[in-house]
Amino acid sequence: MTSKQHPDRKSEQERLEFTKRYMDVVIKTAETSKDQFKKIMQETFGDEDWKESGRYAELLTTANFFDMSQAELESLKKAQSKPYFARVDFTRDENGIKEILYFGKTSLYQRENQEQIIVDWRSPIANLYYEGRIGSVTYEAEGEKFSGDITLKRQLMIEDGNLDEIRDIDLTTTDELLQDSLAKSSSNRLTEIVSTIQEEQNKIIRADLNKPIIVQGAAGSGKTTIALHRISYFIYYYKDLFDPRQLMILAPSRLFIDYISEALPELGVEEAKQFTFTEYVQSAIECELNIIPDKKLIDLLEKKDDETAESIWVSGIKGSSQFKEILDQYVKEIITRFFPKEDFYCDKYRLYSAKKFKKLLGEEYWYLPIYTRVDKLKQILQSQVKSKKKTMLDRVTSFYDTKIQKALTRNIKPNLRREYVTKFLDKKAERTEEIKKAIRTSVKAYFKPFERKHILEYYQELFTDSEMLVTYSDGTLSIKEAERLCRYQMKFFRENQYELEDLGALLYLYSHLFGVDKEKRAKNIVIDEAQDYSFMQLQALKTSSDTDMFTLVGDLAQGIYSYRGLEEWEEVHHSIFPRATYTELKKSYRTTVEIMNEANKLLELLPYNFPQVEPVVRHGEKPIFIKKVNQSWGKELLDRVQTMKQEGLRTFSVIAKTMEDCCEAYKVLSEIDESVCLLEEQAFIPKDQLVILPSYLAKGLEFDGVFAISLNESYTIESELDIKLLYVVMTRPLHRLFFIGNSEEDFLIRN
Ligand SMILES: Nc1ncnc2c1ncn2[C@@H]1O[C@H](COP(=O)(O)OP(=O)(O)OP(=O)(O)O)[C@@H](O)[C@H]1O
Hints:
One of its GO terms (biological process) is recombinational repair. By secondary structure, the chain is α/β, with parallel strands linked by helices.
């Protein structure tokens, strides 16, 4: 009901006004100084209020919000127009006292007197709102269980500081707020959903932060959204322990990073590093690579020749766990190159045995990158030399001094004595010099035979000897296959080029040989569209970052890169993240029932057991097929966009299978309307423009209305990739879906 009709309207209105004014005081005070506090307080609450609100005066003067961090101040400012979104009345069993809790995006409270004006949505007690139902409940905070009674659960719609609506939720109400939120039009950007997080999503956001998590979620189930909220939760939970810059979000493209970026400041997550995998690897291995544009998917769609088959085969190998085994053996072999043949001598003094050196290098320092091990050993030898320096020099001195002494006391001719003494003095000087030189140079000389190659040299070297490759693979590669692989790689190396699929291996090798710089190592990594990563890439990320604190979210049904990515989660779960919690999300929040029903039919065509996606009940129009006649489809499409705009929808896209069809569509559409925009990978999504993009770039994005278009390219039922691409396309719209092509079969529609 609107706030005007609600019986508690007056009290809620007053509460809101108080909160807003109170926030104002806190903000102004934090921005100015403590001295001005009283003045502001008086001005805000007036003289009378001021006296009565002595409690708050005390609260504020003692409060440590004067030490408020800039980030806290910023989030408070952001929350001014919408300080909270829900209220829960909760009576704890332990004391029977009723607490009235208002939940918002940030907290405002005073620890000393427990007065909470706004409770942060990320605090443990907020579970009461997300998971609790009216009646008796329990919730957990820091390992302790609390129980009590929820007597009121209320949603408060506040916009621009005005209380628009009040909704009380009882056991039977449907979540109208969620329905409203889903019915809204999209803004081309991802938004926060703190007021409508669903129970299954809440569980993932708050799942044990000390464990990795793998989420297999249907298209539109909120994976990206949840992943961002989980980071926000993590930052809140560990605010005193972690710097947000130690968190890293890996997204498939810059286009995608731009798409999620709007939700980041809202969630306080903008400081987390945001990279594509390619960007991260190059920064981690400190080397800019000449990476050839990834055309394999397009080749697979368009060329399907032997060359494509070969490159797909190589991609599979380079991304596999088998390749990790090969690299492990290779690394082992590289270590042996550092095993010394001889004991370490400084001058004639044997200071360290080769056996001991080998043991440290090969066994005891197993947890360190090879070159760090070597550096450590260097330090050990240097300190050995240092500690023996005096002894060595003293020995020479005393040896020759004794000789000199003897010569001086021997009964020989003076000439001869002088000769002896001079000789011994010279010898002593000479030996002392020799030892000093040995002290300066012996360590360096000992390490001289040990190579120091560049990461790219090591990587290229792996493909120079096919027989060795077979050995490293423990026979899982045949000699023919190894030769094929070497030939393939050498073709690129000659041009100093690398493929995207080389990056996982390069990062893995680099981590084992040199180790990624500490500054670049993330402590917590969130990967969106994780199904597109290969085993090797995920393994490399884990090895390079020294942590298994990963959040992987993805959807195998959208695995259009499965030739190099994943077909199942099991191997990753089992071999890379054995501690991970695995969760599935089957509900879709994006798409209407009518559109999802059509998209679900595609899942049945795939040779996997993908469960049908359950759309959250929201109805809309059925998808419409428009027959392509000459070029008149262009006008019809643009007319449809106009009509949808009049209905209040805002974002639209034309999605073709390939870029070729996109260009064709662009030609037709741009002649009628100049503002249409052809989207490329590095581009930003323009607001308020009709965008044309290929299916593989549409992954992760959403639009109010989508036109799936087939001009020269159609989707064929025989191709798993085609089915997945079409599934991606059909799950992009929030409200309307149109097909434009020669026949319905081109979109695998079978009535
Ligand atoms: N609890 C929720 N309340 C409101 N909106 C939600 C909720 N969960 C998800 N959504 C909305 O559903 C849409 C899909 O979310 P999101 O893009 O995160 O899904 P996804 O699983 O990553 O999808 P895809 O796999 O297709 O990329 C977004 O518009 C998001 O705001």
